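User: These chains co-purify. Model them together.
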Amino acid sequence: MTFDAVSFDSVVAALQPLDDQAARQAAEHHDRLTKPRGALGRLESLGVQLAGIAGVSPPPVPEPATVVVFAGDHGVVADGVTPWPQEVTAQMVANFAAGGAAINVLARHTGADVLVVDVGVASALDPAPGLLARNVRRGTANLAVEPAMTQDEARAALDVGASVAADAVAGGARALITGEMGIGNTTPAAALIAACTGLPAATVTGRGTGIDDATLALKVGVVERALARFRNEGEDDALALLASLGGLEIAALAGFIVGGAAERVPVIVDGVIALSALAVAARLAPAALPYCIAGHRSTEPGATAALEHLRIEPVLDLELRLGEGSGACLALTVVQAAAKVLGEMATFDAAGVSDKG
Amino acid sequence: MTFDAVSFDSVVAALQPLDDQAARQAAEHHDRLTKPRGALGRLESLGVQLAGIAGVSPPPVPEPATVVVFAGDHGVVADGVTPWPQEVTAQMVANFAAGGAAINVLARHTGADVLVVDVGVASALDPAPGLLARNVRRGTANLAVEPAMTQDEARAALDVGASVAADAVAGGARALITGEMGIGNTTPAAALIAACTGLPAATVTGRGTGIDDATLALKVGVVERALARFRNEGEDDALALLASLGGLEIAALAGFIVGGAAERVPVIVDGVIALSALAVAARLAPAALPYCIAGHRSTEPGATAALEHLRIEPVLDLELRLGEGSGACLALTVVQAAAKVLGEMATFDAAGVSDKG
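Assistant: Joint model of the two components:
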């Protein structure tokens, strides 16, 4: 892809299907390796997917990887959906830049780089190494009462995500990991997942950072009001949905996912926020979905609803509910292992091991 | 521990409870880190366990790690419980020594060393680097018709495992990972798990490497006959159980697990074979269990039965059914991440992040 022309539309236009022949070769190669057929379970299906993504078997090991943490704020916090003050979004961006957050620790551990992108933080941020200033708007409007953003703003955030993905791959990344930070963002995620799956707000809305029963009831009511408002607006295309119920970091994530798919690299998707972005991305550009790997099953009910809707199984289930890209970052090791198994294991013939009778 | 005196009895005598104070300090520290309380799920509980194991918070990162693959053969293959020829055990030992098996690939990927121990292979093996010759007996007897081994042989295999664990830790290992290889060994594992849990043979016996319905029915019958024979022998202590229904590599694994616990290092336990050893180890030396981490939920039904019996939750569920230590080796990355989170994440105070209101 050429660099300077990267937009969401350009990456959608560049999407290709997976390479079926490479995937088939990987599946056949698995049956020659020194193990019972199918015994490596999920590592085998991931290896086949990686071959289809890369267009070659065995697939290259997806490294280095880059976690991109898109940060944005949410007007809906005015309704009391979270006990955390909005300023924590900006404080956590500083924590990411300083290397002290969970995602920094996990990315160092798994060998991934971390890039933070301000796409919608409410306050002006000081420049910092590893922080990209791409602010589209200083926080969304309150989706309980009005569209979170305009469609132009949603499109601008999609473009940010798409171009960040292209730049990361141009810079050498061979796997992309979705990360995010935004106080209040499980509320728009629940609204988007409810709208995409058709499930009731109460089914897909969770406790986020750990809210109490009263706050959860309030949050469900907020999501219901937002959904009713959106239905009344009489629009139902995916861009309108994203603008009306989404978040700036969620829109950027959707662009990032499709951008990674256009570059033919695996995109490891994290928890409920990333899955809400993926649900929208799969409507905007269905051909991006086969490039995605669900890294982790968040404890948020919306995450499981989105996974079932998209018919994808997460790699890990570690009861995380942090976001930032934490679960996807841990899944990277398993995804890389899947490629190495195909590339490095001995065959029955080469190792002189008898196949079963 | 002194080296030359390591036996199973000596490691049992050396077992200590976890350090509750260090575990409590780790739990308290988690609540000061820049994340919602409890949001790191399983990483938090693993971190607390690691602190209790090491006796200090934050716990040291459990590295380097050593996977020990204990290999043994099984007389029960004469009854047709598996389509794989017995010679594959020895062939796979050569494959391990050459670095071409799945466990070699996964251990290189996660930074673990691999040591192979012949504790019960039926044929004489050529010396090879990374292969330790500790053969107690050239394969077990057919447990369907007679005790698999004598109690003296079971004790000798327990001693092998205990001393290998002590040597690995003396050599620098700070985490131990259980591995095994033995054609036919899901049959003794099912018998041991049935005996330890009280569940019927049909509930805990699985398809192992992928046997068909007819072979599965035959295998269940073999396990039932073995259990009936053992009951008729009128003994029910754990050593008699292990000798009557076990395998040499399973006995060595039980010794290895207790040996690692005595050295106060985490022991990451793999699939159904390792869990059958752990079920026996937990009867022989209950104080070893808190040092163990179940790495992976094998698709074998006996694995889930043993996990429930022992009340431990596996870290991963990747639908593996290979053994060798493959699932536990992949879990190592998560276990190490749990320690790094405690040691490296910023606190709310240090990062200037507001805690929730």
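Chain A has 15 helices and six strands.
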